[in-house]
């Protein structure tokens, strides 16, 4: 589920003309090696909470950059574009935060092997 979400974020960023490869997304947004997203997809594994935290941080940071650019004295069409990008990044960051919390809750609910040790 979470790997699918990461792929959706990557596709959304590409639709917004950022045109980043999976390798760039893995490295620049997930703070992992360039083959990380491809590894998750091919292996069926799920990302760690730290990966989601990295993604949230990057998206939040990008939102702030676009918000600052939109506030500058620029042509109206450029200001709109920056505002739209800021909203997109903020929305993606919010969904990523919810996914992080969902994953954290799931992991907290799983019984620990230590609890069964005698």
How would you describe the shape? globular
Helix content range: over 70%
Structural class: mainly alpha
Termini separation (Å)?
A: 34 Å
DSSP strand count:
0
Residue stretches low in confidence (pLDDT < 50, at least 5 long) are 112-118
Instruction: Name the beta content range.
Output: under 5%
How can the largest sheet be summarized? Answer: none
Mean pLDDT: 89
Order of H and E elements: HHHHH
List keywords for this structure.
disordered C terminus
Could you walk me through the main structural features you see in this protein, from its secondary elements to its overall organization?
It is a single chain. The protein has 118 residues and is mainly alpha-helical. It has 5 helices and no strands. The chain has helices at residues 2-15, 22-28, 36-43, 49-71, 76-109. The chain is globular. The model is unreliable at 112-118 (pLDDT under 50).
Give a topology summary:
Elements: H1 2-15, H2 22-28, H3 36-43, H4 49-71, H5 76-109
Helix pairs in contact: 4-5
Structure summary:
The protein is globular, with a radius of gyration of 17 Å. By secondary structure, it is mainly α.
